[in-house]
User: What shape does this take?
Amino acid sequence: MPERRAVAIYARISQDRDGQQLGVRRQLSDCRAEADRLGWTVAEEYVDDDISAYSGKARPAYQRMLEDLDAGHIDAVMAWHVDRLYRRPSELEQFISACERARVSDLHTVSGSFDLATGDGMLVARMLAAVAANESDSKRRRGKRKMQEIAEAGQPHGGGTRPFGFLPDRVTHDQTEAEVIRQIAERVLAGESLPSVGRWMDANDIRTVTGKQWRTPVIRGLLLNRRICGERVHNGKVMGPAAWEPIISTETADALHRLLTAPERRTNRAARNYLLSGMCRCAKCGNKMVSSRRYETRRYICRSGLDGGSGCGSITVTAEPVELIVARATLMRLDSRELQDALAGRVRDDAQAASLYDKIAADEGKLVELAGLWASDDMTTDGWKRAKAIIEQRLTENRQRLSRLSGTRQLDAYLGQGGALQAQWSGLNLDRQRAIVKVLVDHVVINPGVIGARSVAVERVRPVWRF
Ligand SMILES: [Zn+2]
Assistant: This one.
């Protein structure tokens, strides 16, 4: 063995998967002893701290060593084992070319040396690197393979919390929870929104396996998981029938999948698909009706308390005819004599708006002043209440006047344009249609329908005009 005067020792700490932690100190001391035995002089020690050999993280000391090799500062490299030098066989090639450029042929390890100048030495180094890489790869593969086998057999996966709907054995149904899954599947397919289903679960004290409230994405995940229709899923792929009974049928699961993954669900569907969302009122109870889909039919419904709403639950109407009726009525009104008369009384000028602003601000100030007087005993509670009521009444009126004023300005662009808008209506996007309707319509009262009526009668729809 020729004398070497500038030996580089390379050491790397990594997480040892076999549990034989090979400390840097041990690597260094073994390498130093080996250099001593050979009579080599160590020029520098390069140490990287690298938790996982496959993490792909940069190894600054290793890079520095390659640079020093290129600069001709090194005439041999020593490491405890080749697996310290390269994490992947491809990295060995990088190292070998650096050695070639620097005409360094000595690679020495504690267990043997490689003459990189000869084909044999290189081959052994390459094989060792390949073996080292393969060992840690195969260890991971063995783990993965085992999981795959379990999945292919339809057996449940062992770790973590049990899935909702199943007992801890992950196979036997939890009867109560399984019934909940069936019910929410039915509700969602009937057009109920996920947040509404969540409110229903909350109201019925239904909690997740870890005792948490059901949030919308979690409900969605539950309904989209094929486990509930008796399929074994592994890494997002269905492996086949599972060892457990299905909670819902495959057909139901498919329908849920189509519904919940439809592209129009990605945004606020209610606001995007419903011309009158938030604008319909139940004629029976006065409650705001919510937009809701039943299969392919869009509807406005008065949702009762049982369903997570606060209405009487007795009125439901198909959305499309109502929207047509309201749109048509809006456009007709734009060109109507009634609207002109209604607007005639209004002074469309900024001076009036400014004076309203002043009055509102003054009254707001008075309310604060009044509270101060009452607090410092300069005023009786009765007197305070009476004064407060008067000011509040005036405030409300002035605020309404002001909002009507601004509304009028919005309306100017559309006045007398009803006929023209009617001609292009179906070509306008929903946002634009909504904007036009909202200029004129404060809300729409929906009357109860005649039992068995096939279409929505015009009498059922009563727009309440802002002007
Ligand atoms: Zn109602």
